[in-house]
Amino acid sequence: MHTPSRQPGMGLLAILLSAVGIAPLLNYGLSATSDLIIRDLGISEAQFGLLATTCFAFAAVGNAAMGKFSDRRPDNTLMVLIFGVATLSMAVAAIPGGYWVLLAAVALSGLAQSFPNGVTNRILAQRVPDAQRITWTGIKQSGVQVSQLVGSIGFPLLAAWLGWHGASLVGALIAALLGVMAVRIVSLVPLLPVPAKPKPGASGSGRGLPKDTSARFFIVALTTFGFVNGAGVQASNVYLPLFAVRELDFSLVAGGLTAAVAGVVGVTARVGWGAMMSRGIPAPKLLLLLAMLATCGGVGFLLAQQLHSPTLLWVAVVLHGASALGVSVVLMAALLRSIPADRMGSASGIVSAGQFGGFTVGPLLMGLLVGSDAGFTAGWMAVIGIYLCCVLLGLFLLLRRRPREPRIGG
After folding, report:
1. Distances (CA, A) of 46 to 43, 219, 250, 261, 316
2. Is 188 exposed, middle or buried, given 0-12, 13-18 or 19+ CB atoms closer than 10 A?
3. What is the pLDDT of residues 89-144, one digit of tens each?
4. pTM of the predicted model, to two decimals?
5. Phi/psi zone of residue 282: left (φ > 0), alpha (ψ -120 to 50 degrees), beta?
6. What is the full DSSP assignment across 297-346?
7. 87: DSSP letter
8. How many CA atoms lie within 13 A of 384 on its CB side?
């Protein structure tokens, strides 16, 4: 029997990062090998986009429906679900059964993304001291971009050796190993002392979201921003390697490298934005800044195509990684400032459902546009329009915000 350690260490942080990043690994790996998969399965660009749409649709529904479920389940139970379902999804993708089997695999991958934000936020709130909490949020949210980096480099390299089915099998083995480590490490970190309960009426009564009007508005606002930004993020992420291969004549590995570089920049950016949040900078200010930078990135992708410029493509990749991929950490850090731990699963689930809803729409829209006569030109113009909507939302939030985000439950 293990004796719990007194302080959370780097092992716990690594597991939180892995829990956030493991479920999206399949999706990023498929995106990085998109040209190979499209040719191998004989599918259209829109059908390939449907894979990501299916994944994120299941994730959106799961996050919306499973919030209260995750509030009531122990951390280790949810860790087993996250890593177990992620393992199953990649194992199914390793089966050479055609397009419909792959569609089932990505659906499972989406279900695995129903719990990570809620349980990792709760672990931070209940097991990590306040001084570390927001900084750790930035680091653990970068797990998605670590996954993007690993999938974008690892899958094409493994696919060249084992095929993309073999690459999926390797991913399944890694997920299973990380799951065993997650349960062990979380068990060793004790809960912090429970603070005094808030006075009646401070945060509403009963389970679920707070009844305070300002808090509910804040959650809805974050969810809306996450939805719109999410559409632009995955419209770009899913088709970025294919864009580089088809429009700028990159090799398959070099095309995957574009997404990998976005992931590397995204890791650094999420840690940096988390550090800025920990210094007390309001979320609306950062969201507006990120929306403006993301719009510049969308313009960069369009110009790279029109001028056939690899240099502009790399500039756009960096802007995309630094901005649009950094929104999640701002949303989650804002929740940690505002929502009590016993309602973190519900609140995180609603905001995450908004993001995944956007993730669902983006690839489907981009796939239809890329497959049309206008091709990537129409696609990048749509992405620019999406991010301009984010700019307007950011301005609205900035004008509506109070001096600080609402503090719910003490």
Report:
1. 8, 33, 21, 25, 24
2. middle
3. 999 999 999 999 999 999 999 999 888 888 888 898 888 888 788 788 878 877 88
4. 0.75
5. beta
6. HHHHHHHHHHHT-HHHHHHHHHHHHHTGGGHHHHHHHHHHHHS-GGGHHH
7. H
8. 15
H or E stretch at 121: helix 116-127
- What one-character DSSP code corresponds to residue 83? H
Q: Is the dihedral of CA 274, 278, 283, 288 positive or negative?
A: negative
Distance of alpha carbon 370 from alpha carbon 239, whole angstroms = 9
Residue at token pair 């309001």 = 282
User: What tokens were used for 214?
Assistant: 């300002």
- Domain 10-191+210-400 -> CATH class: mainly alpha
Q: Confirm if 235 and 363 have CB atoms less than 8 A apart.
A: yes
What is the chain's percent helix, strand, coil content, to nearest 5? Answer: 80, 0, 20
Handedness of CA 307, 299, 358, 318 (dihedral sign): positive
Which residues does the chain have with pLDDT short of 50?
Answer: 1, 200-207, 403-410
How many CB atoms are located within 10 Å of the residue 345 CB? 28
CA-CA distances (angstroms) from residue 257 to 242, 248, 252? Answer: 11, 13, 9
Q: Is the separation of the CB atoms in 266 and 50 below 8 Å?
A: no
> Of 262, 254, 257, which Cα lies nearest the Cα of 236?
262
